[in-house]
Amino acid sequence: MKALTVRQPWASLIVLGVKDVENRSWSAPAGIIGQRIAIHAGKTHNGNEFRSALITARWGGLPGDDEPNNTMRWIHAWWANRDLPYGAVIGTAVVADCHQCDGGCSPWAVRGRDWHWSLTDVTEAHDPVEMNGRLGLWEVSTHG
Ligand SMILES: [Zn+2]
């Protein structure tokens, strides 16, 4: 399975099903569209990204009332970000689509030149598997 390294808190927001778009400067390879990829949480983070995530969440990036559990988990993750997993594969997602647009596709999409990787059908790993991340899409060995 291919894996994508994403910094926290974005990685956890993806596998919780909160953040449905990953912004990248490069387009997803055609062969990965419709495929499931592993989401790897990078080892580094900075406070500005946590602040940015919280602002996006407040401005409409959180799912509706049908997802109160995810919302509570996200709020918890924000207040205690040291508890987020780092340097590990924390779940998977299907790359449903990759496109460029004005940012209207999702509250999490960055307006501009970035490519929007639409992620669906996420799963969260019960036991994150620690490993080093890499740039780009990289191959991760999975347990069966
Ligand atoms: Zn878009």
Task: Throw out a few tags for this protein.
binds zinc ion, single chain, globular, 144 residues, Archaeosine Trna-guanine Transglycosylase, Chain: A, domain 4, six-stranded mixed sheet, alpha+beta
Structure notes:
It is globular, with a radius of gyration of 14 Å. The longest helix is centred in the middle third of the chain and has 15 residues, at 47-61. The chain has 144 residues and is of the alpha+beta class. The N and C termini lie close together (11 Å). The protein is built from three helices and six strands, in the order E-H-E-E-H-H-E-E-E. The protein has one domain (2-131): Archaeosine Trna-guanine Transglycosylase, Chain: A, domain 4 (Roll). The site of zinc ion has 5 residues, from loops.
List the helices and strands and how they pair.
Layout: E1 2-6, H1 10-15, E2 21-24, E3 36-41, H2 47-61, H3 68-79, E4 88-99, E5 115-130, E6 137-139
Parallel strand pairs: 1-3
Antiparallel strand pairs: 1-6, 2-5, 3-4, 4-5
The structure holds zinc ion.
The site of zinc ion has 5 residues, from loops.
Class in CATH? Mainly Beta
Q: Give the helix level as a range of percent.
A: 10-25%
Largest sheet: 6 strands, mixed
The CATH architecture is Roll
> What is the element string, with H for helices and E for strands?
EHEEHHEEE
Number of domains: 1
CATH H-level homologous superfamily name: Hypothetical protein
Strand arrangement within the widest β-sheet reads: 2-5-4-3-1-6
Q: Which fold name corresponds to the CATH topology? A: Archaeosine Trna-guanine Transglycosylase, Chain: A, domain 4
Q: How many H/I helical runs?
A: 3
Helix-and-strand structural type: alpha+beta
Radius of gyration (CA) equals 14 Å
- Quaternary state reads single chain
User: Based on DSSP secondary structure assignment, what is the total number of beta strands?
Assistant: 6
Hetero groups in this structure are: zinc ion
Shape: globular
Return residue spans where pLDDT drops below 50 for at least 5 consecutive residues. none
Percentage beta strand: 25-35%
How far do the termini sit from each other? 11 Å
Mean pLDDT: 85
